[in-house]
From TrEMBL:
Matches recorded under HAMAP family: IMP_biosynth_PurP (MF_01163)
Positions annotated to bind ATP: E225
Pathway assignment: Purine metabolism; IMP biosynthesis via de novo pathway; 5-formamido-1-(5-phospho-D-ribosyl)imidazole-4-carboxamide from 5-amino-1-(5-phospho-D-ribosyl)imidazole-4-carboxamide (formate route): step 1/1
Organism: Methanolobus chelungpuianus
Cofactor: Mg(2+); Mn(2+)
Record-annotated ATP-grasp domain positions: 101-332
Record key words, sorted: ATP-binding, Ligase, Magnesium, Manganese, Metal-binding, Nucleotide-binding, Purine biosynthesis
Keyword Manganese part of the UniProt annotation: yes
Protein name: 5-formaminoimidazole-4-carboxamide-1-(beta)-D-ribofuranosyl 5'-monophosphate synthetase
Length: 355
């Protein structure tokens, strides 16, 4: 991984009055570019082959400039162009997944957040060490040969649910698993899925205070998964199984949510524990992150995954959410990222939020 010292050396040669915000043209780029522009930054879209035409339909979110590559794997080859434009890159799920974790952590361009978190987020074994070390209740990990009820099988990395499946016994597991990919098996928890969108600032002092900085709750969502959210209209689970139709969990969109207000203390407590443990393990997770959870009928919250970056569920809230509006009207996660960079520049603390 590129060193913090090298990144700060690069920043030292930047014209800080002309910082640019850059990201890959996918995932949550519309709100990242929109938020950056609202805070006065120039924007750069990184795209493959040619600029996506849909940006023409959304002029407020269209990047000021596109940098074109033949493949996402070629992004390291445009480092000099990004540095020449005083760029700070914003990681998101597609950016990290398409480029690859190993290439991203070596990218010689200042990045918002702590790159060390990607190792803990992308490896589900390390992710469990992190979350359980924070005192978080997770679904139990299951050995394949000990499956005796519904389990969820997931592959490592940001896959958008692709390839995930439910198995009820070892035979079903063997039938569907991809043995050449790293996977984890969790007990299946019955309840309602909630995705909590937080923001951790190591710089601010006013708000929900942690040992260092503050924690903010910006929004919540639930994911729409194909075909799991519609499949049972065709028949009962037994009928579907007999017809050879199996549920899939590819994320195709998102639905807005708010939680009952009595759950907010627990929701903040979960976010606080995860941030505090990250400070101990790898120097802290900075900026947006998402706890992916199931809320049971006993009002317990089980955390089955963490995304330590901006998630696509925040795209619902380009003009604010019922929660972020209570911080600042019209505040999106993309805008909040730009605000943190702008504030860090003004107080001379870019070193605390970039890596």
């Amino acid at each position: 991984m590129i060193t913090k010292e090298r990144i700060m050396e690069i920043i030292g040669n930047y014209d800080l009055d002309k910082l640019s915000i850059a990201t890959v043209c996918s995932h949550s780029s519309l709100q990242i570019f929109d938020g950056a522009r609202k805070e006065g930054f120039r924007t750069i879209g990184i795209c493959v082959k040619k600029p996506p035409r849909f940006y023409d339909a959304f002029p407020k979110s269209k990047p000021d400039e596109f940098i074109i590559v033949d493949s996402y794997k070629d992004i390291p080859g445009i480092v000099d162009q990004l540095v020449a434009r005083n760029a700070i890159v914003i990681p998101h799920g597609s950016f990290v997944e398409y480029l690859g974790h190993e290439r991203f952590v070596d990218l010689a361009v200042p990045s918002f957040g702590n790159r060390a978190v990607l190792e803990w987020e992308s490896d589900r074994e390390k992710e469990r060490v992190w979350l359980e070390g924070a005192g978080i209740h997770m679904p139990k990990k299951v050995n394949p040969r000990e499956i005796n009820g519904p389990v969820m099988v997931k592959y490592h990395g940001a896959k958008g649910g692709k390839g995930f499946f439910i198995a009820k016994n070892y035979e079903e597991f063997q039938e569907h698993v991809k043995p050449d990919e790293k996977y984890t098996i969790q007990e299946f928890i019955t309840g309602t899925r909630y995705y909590f969108h937080y923001f951790y600032s190591p710089l601010r002092q006013e708000g929900y205070r942690l040992s260092e900085g503050i924690l903010e709750m910006l929004s919540m969502d639930r994911r729409v998964e194909s075909n799991a959210d519609e499949i049972f209209r065709l028949g009962s689970p037994r009928e579907l199984e007999e017809a050879g139709i199996h549920p899939t969990y590819v994320v195709t969109g998102n639905v807005p949510l708010v939680a009952r207000e009595s759950l907010l203390p627990l929701i903040f407590e979960l976010g606080e524990k995860v941030v505090e443990e990250s400070l101990s393990l790898f120097g802290g997770m900075i900026g947006p992150f998402c706890l992916e959870t199931v809320v049971t009928d006993n009002l317990e919250i089980k955390v089955f995954e963490i995304s330590a970056r901006i998630v696509a569920g925040t795209n619902l809230y380009l003009n604010g959410s019922p929660y972020s509006d209570l911080i600042e009207p019209g505040l999106s996660t993309g805008k909040r990222i730009a605000q943190e960079i702008k504030y860090a520049r003004s107080v001379g603390q870019l070193d605390k939020i970039l890596s």
